[in-house]
From TrEMBL:
It comes from Keguizhuia sedimenti. InterPro entries: KH_dom-like_a/b (IPR015946), OsmC/Ohr_fam (IPR003718), OsmC/Ohrsf (IPR036102). This is OsmC family protein. PANTHER family: PROTEIN YHFA (PTHR34352). NCBIfam families: PRK10738.1 (NF008009).
């Protein structure tokens, strides 16, 4: 895997990352650090990438388990060290799975498999951060029936 990160110029702290797959990601710094707040901070991109990595796993595992899912969100909240290097010290992953008759034990299993075996990003970050995981299931059949009433 490769990536090239390029500073966009002499003013500001905006960077463009071109991934090995040919996609562009823009990052910027906070105004107090010379940035202009035009894009996410690099550490926000790390957190978002971790969320994407684990959500991908959970969806794949649930589909392979025969679950009828329509959506999967993961809301990440984190804390960082106060002094440099300001690594993540705590990360909570809250999954919201939407589907029809989704089994709670299979969601729990999918999350566990992602975080213990498949999600490279969260496994790497757990070296510095205390990880916690919660989830909820929104049954689309129940939600549809309630809306029709």
């Amino acid at each position: 895997m490769e990536c090239t990160v390029r500073w966009t110029g002499l003013s500001g702290m905006t960077f463009l990352a071109e991934t090995g797959s040919g996609h562009i990601v823009t990052m910027d710094g906070a105004p107090e650090g010379g940035g202009r707040n035009l894009a996410p901070r690099p550490m926000e991109v790390v957190l978002a990438g971790t969320g994407g990595c684990t959500a991908y796993d959970v969806v794949l595992i649930l589909r392979k388990s025969g679950q009828e899912i329509y959506g999967c969100d993961v809301k990440l909240s984190s804390e960082r060290a106060e002094k440099d290097p300001k690594v993540f010290t705590k990360i909570n992953f809250h999954f919201i799975v939407r589907g029809r008759n989704v089994k709670s034990n299979l969601v729990e299993r999918a999350i566990k498999l992602s975080h213990e075996k498949y999600c490279s990003a969260s496994i790497m970050l757990e070296k510095t951060a205390e990880m916690s995981h919660t989830f909820e299931i929104i049954d689309e059949a129940v939600a549809t029936a309630e809306q029709e009433q």
